[in-house]
Amino acid sequence: MNLNHAKVYQTMNAYQNLTNRGKLRRLRKLAVLGLTHYGLPNPQITYHGFETNLLFRVTTAGGERFMLRLAYPGWRTLADLTAEALWLTALNEDTDIPVPAVLPTRDGKLVLSIISPEVPDVWPMTLMRYAPGRLLGHYLTQANLEKMGRLFARLHQHGLDWTPPVEFTRRRFEHWLSRGEPDLISSDGIPQESDVQGVHHVEISALHHRWIDKMIAQVEGAYQALDRADLRVIHCDLWHDNIKLYQGVLYPFDFEDTVWGYRAHDIAMAMLDLLETVGEARYSALLEAFQRGYQSLLPWPEARIEPFQIGRLLWKINWVARYQPLYLAGMIERHIPVFEHFERTGAVILPKSG
């Protein structure tokens, strides 16, 4: 190991040993360094939040406001973040949908990968104009769900009509696992002898396996039955708290899951989050309002959304199997009534809390 490498190694170790506050100070310095690539007049940077990604508010001398995002290493690939930036740029050019405009660096980069000897990993940086308003989750009325339905339809239409550049992602969301995650819950998943890094074998009972395998088969069948002509660019995570409401207008943001996909899947993810937020008593009326808004601009997808919601629940169970395996048996047990109800009725209900 030469002296330069030794210094970097020692710095990496020092970073890992820092408190959370100490790490944030280092990352703030990384953000300030990144801002020098944009030529903004006297930018002032303020911590905004840290939920997976690290966010800073940036205000210029002229009062312009931006959101600076440092993407958590490994959470999304550079290709994912580039796809987000490319679609946001196209939406700003082609429509009046108030999506965040991505500010390029002085040399034209939409996503900046910067390296500092004080931080051991690369935190890809994106700078976007700040979206005004409050999260739509505070205002889940039928009128606003109609607006949300129209917003989805407009995004779906652009996602179909747009021809992305060659550097846009080729990845498709068309399975219950679509980000290369290991399958830890099906009978055909990773065996006990697995050498997959970071994966630990967890025992699943025969009864639990039967339900999981049955649900996976139905979800995969639903994906396979989708009309391939419906494939388009989708947001893939446009739930109500990835939308702001300002002066009656919806401002969608957080496009980092941008991918090739299908309308029924895109709607299903948002409506499952809605169900989990408002409960079964309010869900039907709000779903109907969303559908009215959507159908005012586009026909409703032919495919039912419920199988894809079951797929999302399976994904959550698989996440628990990987990161919280002690809770797996209870997680599956709570979802068996959901699977039973879906098998009988085709509808999705909430699992019992536990």
What does this protein structure show overall?
With 354 residues, this protein is of the alpha+beta class. The protein is built from 9 helices and 9 strands. The strands form 3 sheets. A 4-stranded antiparallel beta sheet has the order 1-2-3-4, covered by helices on one side. A 3-stranded antiparallel beta sheet has the order 5-7-8, covered by helices on one side. Helix 5 (206-225) crosses helix 9 (328-345), helix 6 (263-278) packs antiparallel against helix 7 (280-295) and helix 8 (306-323) packs antiparallel against helix 9. The longest helix is centred in the middle third of the chain and has 20 residues, at 142-161. It is globular, with a radius of gyration of 22 Å. The protein starts with a helix and ends in a 9-residue tail after the last helix. The model is unreliable at 1-11 (pLDDT under 50).
Order of helices and strands: HHEEEHEEHHEEEEHHHH
Oligomer: single chain
Helices, by number, come to 9
Strand percent estimate:
5-15%
Overall spatial form:
globular
Number of strands: 9
The strands making up the biggest β-sheet line up spatially as 1-2-3-4
Overall average residue pLDDT? 92
Structural class: alpha+beta
Poorly predicted ranges: 1-11
Largest sheet: 4 strands, antiparallel
How much is the radius of gyration in Å? 22 Å
End-to-end C-alpha gap = 51 Å
Helix content: 40-55%
